[in-house]
């Protein structure tokens, strides 16, 4: 386990924690961006360069912006009066802790059986492109449709209704 | 006492006998037609009634002529036509009719008197609005009475007897809106019913003993020697034979219908009916049906009598008749209603007839019946004429001097009254009553009936003179002036007056045609008939009695006209006796205290029984059911419903509890999801670990 | 601790953090942020298994992760659009107050 991994992991986890714990929603969004960036670097560390850059482009470049827009449009920048956590936050924390416990336990239990291939794979963009067109053409097309639908749907859902009827 | 004559047996009924059934049938059918007419048509109803009875009269005359011709050629006719009505296995019930001198004579009398009264009624009932109903009932009555006359079966006779009783009830209560009339009709029906119960017992007994109810059936009838011998051999209670006992039971029925003491109480009240009804039913025909019945079953009554002797049954008949004769005459003395006097007179004369039957035989009683029918109908119709002329006044004390105002009525009434009193030689009543007195003279058992009957004749003359004096002599005490009745009413009176005189001729000792005819013997005119021992003396005594009575009656009442409110002469003389006689010797009151009181008590007991005991049982059952139903209901409500409701409540509560899981908040759902994943994962890992 | 296990643990931690936030924060947008974190953690899992698993030349893991990124982006867009629309009606993004589906 190299030092790079620990640093990047710490960064990502810190960003995630900050995203979930901060009071100001905009700060949370920014912390989320940090977490995204950390993840992208982790991908790079894992020799998944395409995935890392895709992560940066999509998540940091689009989703984070989208989240900030949403926060601003819903006046989320104002801090609510009676706390940002729900009354029963302990139950939720407990559930999350239980989930982590199960996951961690299963990981640690199966350490010996996990695969150990160390040789880094060489992945070219051409390979990815070919794979997309040949083997994964159907998911590609479906995702294209999905994105179109999501686009149209999001616009419709979020559109301002004019007085006197839906547009 | 005469011997029983054996009639020539007939095996083939003549044509006239075959169609004899038409005589009663035609008036009954006429009654039915009148009843079914839609609107009351007065002329049509009267024509139908009179026409049908004329037809019956014609046929009766033919039958009479046939029997008469047979008698003149020395043949005693008795023709029967029998048929089986009900066949029940081995036993059967036969009905039939008989044509013999007795029935022939009675047929002519009934139809002739009936026809005259029908014609009279068209005038009397002129102003009545129920004219049609009257003629319907009268026609029905006439048919039923003729049925009684020709019946050869005791059952058929009983059926027509009951029909006669029914029409009597309907006609007595003709003006039913009057409470007195409907009460009188009920009384008549119930009292005669008492007699009829005994009659029915007699019929049933006779049928069980002899197996047949036919009178004559070519040797197999119940009045023929074979059956009578069987009845005589059978002993009944109190030393009687079956024949005697049955005879007495039948006499009980006759006593009810003919108004003998103590079943006479209905006859005076029956005067509530219209006068033609009183004339036809309660003077001439229906009340005579009892006498006719005894005459019909005379062989039964006489069975077992030794030559010159008598039977227990006939003795009872005689005593009852004689005592009734005197009893009714006494009461008639103190009555003030013109019709009631005549009613009691009728009861008295019926007593005479019964006594005559008991002591002298069929011919004696029947002769008085025939003559009485004519002059009593005459008297009643005359009374009706008087009532009509005096504008419906019936109290004799408010009449008077009608001799000049209503001459025809007076003349005919006088004829009838003298016939009833037995005025010597000229009037039929003298000869018929004398026949009875003669029979009483020769009666072997006792002399008392003779003395009673003579005393009764005295009283008869007395009260009739009193009545005639009040009504026709003196001065007019009524309101409006009186007027003579129309010809349609006085013409029948004249015809009846003629018969009241003429009929005497057929029963004199010199020429006893009637007796011979009924017996089937031949006879001729023989003045030596008067030479019978004691006959002239008896005729002298009865003549003396009649004149004595007339004189005694004339003295206090003749040509004096006391005011209606003044007490009667006799009442001033012997007030207690007069009061007792006026109140009809308290027989009605006696009945009221005993029979009716008992009946009321019995009705109360039955009511109590019904309401408390049977009603209580029913109520008890109902109460038990209700209890059971309540038990079921509580069971249903509390246990069944309760458990069900509880179950539903539990369901609702648990549902409510479970519904709390659905908070509607997304984060709750997420948490539960996560928990479920944890649980599943744990299970999976744990199971794969092993 | 193998490198793969390390990556997996980081992914698990990230996943739990995202889940905790999604389960406890009151703001709807922060719930969506938490969900994005969870998705990303899953992506990390995928890439880690692709790198250290057999047959990395098949590119399966990488492809899966890429498609997952695309779908997550679409989902984020629609979800945020929904939150905006809800805010327009209810004038709040507080999830505690949105319980009209209460049973």
Short précis:
Chain A is 71% helix and 0% strand. By secondary structure, chain A is mainly α. Chain A folds into 2 domains: 1-79, NADH-ubiquinone/plastoquinone oxidoreductase chain 6, subunit NuoJ (Four Helix Bundle (Hemerythrin (Met), subunit A)), CATH 1.20.120; 123-167.
Q: Would you write up a description of this structure?
A:
The complex is a heterotrimer of chains A (about 170), B (about 700) and C (about 100). The model of chain A has no long low-confidence stretch (mean pLDDT about 90). Chain A has about 170 residues and is an all-alpha fold. In chain A, helix 1 runs antiparallel to helix 2 (about 25-45) and helix 2 (about 25-45) packs antiparallel against helix 3. Chain A has helices spanning about 5-20, 25-45, 50-75, 90-110, 125-135, 135-160. In chain B, strands 1-2 form a two-stranded antiparallel ribbon. In chain B, strand 1 and strand 2 form a beta hairpin. In chain B, helix 12 (about 285-295) packs antiparallel against helix 16. The model of chain B is unreliable at about 1-5 (pLDDT under 50). By secondary structure, chain C is mostly helical. Helices cover about 75% and strands about 0% of the residues of chain C. Chain C contains three helices and no strands. Chain C has helices at about 5-25, 30-50, 60-90. The N and C termini of chain C lie far apart (about 50 Å). The mean pLDDT of chain C is about 90. Chains A and C meet through helix 1, helix 2, helix 3, helix 4 and helix 5 of A and helix 1, helix 2 and helix 3 of C.
């Amino acid at each position: 386990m190299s030092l790079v991994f620990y640093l990047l992991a710490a960064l990502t986890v810190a960003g995630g924690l900050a995203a979930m714990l901060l009071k100001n929603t905009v700060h949370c969004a920014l912390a989320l961006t940090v977490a995204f960036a950390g993840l992208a670097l982790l991908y790079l560390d894992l020799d998944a360069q395409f995935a890392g850059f895709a992560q940066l482009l999509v998540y940091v470049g689009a989703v984070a912006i989208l989240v900030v827009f949403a926060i601003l449009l819903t006046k989320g920048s104002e801090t609510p009066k009676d706390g940002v956590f729900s009354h029963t936050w302990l139950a939720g924390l407990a559930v999350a802790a239980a989930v982590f416990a199960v996951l961690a336990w299963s990981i640690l239990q199966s350490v010996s059986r996990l695969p150990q291939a160390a040789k880094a794979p060489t992945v070219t963009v051409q390979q990815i492109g070919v794979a997309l067109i040949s083997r994964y053409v159907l998911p590609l097309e479906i995702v294209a449709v999905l994105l179109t639908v999501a686009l149209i749907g999001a616009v419709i859902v979020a559109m301002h209704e004019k007085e006197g009827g839906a547009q | 006492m005469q011997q029983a004559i054996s009639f020539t047996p007939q095996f083939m009924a003549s044509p006239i006998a075959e169609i004899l059934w038409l005589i009663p049938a035609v008036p009954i059918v006429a009654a039915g037609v009148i009843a079914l007419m839609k609107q009351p048509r007065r002329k049509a109803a009267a024509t139908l009634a009179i026409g049908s009875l004329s037809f019956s009269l014609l046929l009766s005359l033919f039958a009479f002529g046939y029997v008469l011709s047979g008698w003149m050629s020395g043949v005693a006719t008795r023709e029967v036509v029998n048929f089986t009505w009900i066949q029940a296995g081995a036993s059967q019930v036969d009905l039939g009719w008989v044509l013999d001198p007795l029935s022939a004579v009675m047929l002519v009398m009934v139809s002739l008197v009936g026809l005259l009264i029908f014609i009279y009624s068209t005038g009397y009932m002129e102003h009545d609005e129920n004219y049609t109903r009257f003629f319907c009932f009268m026609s029905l009555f006439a048919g039923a009475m003729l049925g009684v006359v020709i019946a050869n079966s005791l059952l058929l006779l009983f059926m027509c007897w009951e029909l006669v009783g029914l029409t009597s009830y309907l006609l007595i209560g003709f003006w039913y809106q009057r409470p007195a009339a409907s009460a009188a009709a009920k009384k008549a029906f119930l009292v005669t019913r008492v007699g009829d119960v005994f009659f029915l017992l007699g019929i049933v007994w006779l049928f069980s003993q002899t197996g047949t109810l036919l009178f004559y059936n070519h040797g197999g009838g119940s009045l023929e020697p074979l059956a009578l011998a069987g009845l005589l051999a059978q002993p009944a209670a109190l030393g009687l034979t079956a024949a005697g006992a049955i005879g007495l039971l039948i006499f009980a029925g006759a006593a009810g219908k003919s108004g003998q003491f103590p079943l006479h109480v209905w006859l005076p009240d029956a005067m509530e009916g219209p006068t033609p009804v009183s004339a036809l039913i309660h003077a001439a025909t229906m009340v005579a049906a009892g006498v006719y019945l005894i005459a019909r079953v005379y062989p039964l009554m006489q069975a077992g009598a030794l030559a010159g002797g008598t039977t227990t049954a006939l003795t009872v008949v005689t005593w009852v008749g004689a005592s009734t004769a005197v009893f009714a005459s006494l009461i008639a003395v103190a009555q003030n209603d013109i019709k009631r006097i005549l009613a009691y007179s009728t009861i008295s004369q019926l007593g005479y007839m019964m006594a005559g039957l008991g002591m002298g035989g069929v011919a004696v009683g029947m002769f008085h019946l025939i003559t009485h029918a004519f002059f009593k109908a005459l008297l009643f119709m005359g009374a009706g004429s008087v009532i009509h002329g005096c504008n419906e006044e019936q109290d004799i004390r408010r009449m008077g001097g009608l001799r000049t105002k209503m001459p025809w009525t007076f003349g005919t009434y006088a004829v009838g009254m003298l016939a009833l009193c037995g005025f010597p030689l000229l009037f039929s009543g003298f000869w018929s009553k004398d026949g009875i007195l003669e029979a009483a003279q020769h009666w072997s058992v006792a002399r008392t009936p003779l003395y009673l009957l003579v005393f009764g004749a005295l009283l008869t003359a007395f009260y009739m003179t009193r009545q005639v004096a009040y009504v026709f002599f003196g001065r007019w005490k009524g309101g409006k002036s009186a007027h003579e009745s129309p010809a349609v009413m006085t013409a029948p009176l004249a015809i009846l007056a003629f018969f009241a005189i003429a009929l005497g001729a057929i029963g004199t000792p010199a020429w006893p045609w009637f007796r011979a005819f009924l017996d089937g013997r031949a006879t001729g005119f023989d003045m030596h008939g008067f030479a019978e021992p004691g006959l002239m003396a008896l005729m002298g005594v009865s003549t003396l009695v009649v004149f004595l009575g007339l004189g005694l009656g004339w003295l206090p009442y003749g040509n004096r006209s006391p005011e209606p409110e003044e007490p009667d002469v006799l009442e001033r003389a012997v007030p207690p006796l007069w009061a007792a006689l006026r109140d009809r010797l308290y027989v009605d009151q006696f009945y009221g205290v005993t029979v009716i009181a008992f009946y009321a008590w019995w009705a109360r007991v039955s009511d109590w029984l019904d309401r408390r005991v049977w009603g209580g049982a029913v109520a008890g059952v109902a109460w038990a059911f209700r209890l059971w139903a309540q038990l079921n209901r509580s069971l249903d409500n509390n246990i069944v419903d309760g458990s069900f409701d509880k179950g539903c409540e539990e369901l609702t509560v648990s549902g409510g509890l479970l519904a709390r899981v659905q908070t509607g908040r997304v984060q709750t759902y997420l948490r539960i999801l996560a928990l479920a994943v944890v649980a599943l994962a744990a299970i999976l890992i744990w199971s794969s670990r092993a | 601790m193998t490198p793969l296990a390390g990556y997996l643990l980081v992914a698990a931690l990230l996943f739990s953090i995202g889940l905790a936030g999604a389960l406890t924060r009151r703001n709807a947008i922060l719930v969506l942020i938490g969900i994005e974190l969870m998705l990303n953690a899953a992506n990390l899992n995928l890439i880690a298994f692709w790198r250290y698993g057999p047959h990395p030349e098949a590119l399966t893991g990488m492809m899966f992760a890429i498609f997952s990124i695309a779908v997550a982006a679409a989902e984020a867009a629609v979800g945020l659009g929904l939150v905006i629309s809800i805010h327009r009606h209810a004038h709040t993004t507080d999830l505690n107050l949105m319980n009209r589906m209460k049973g």
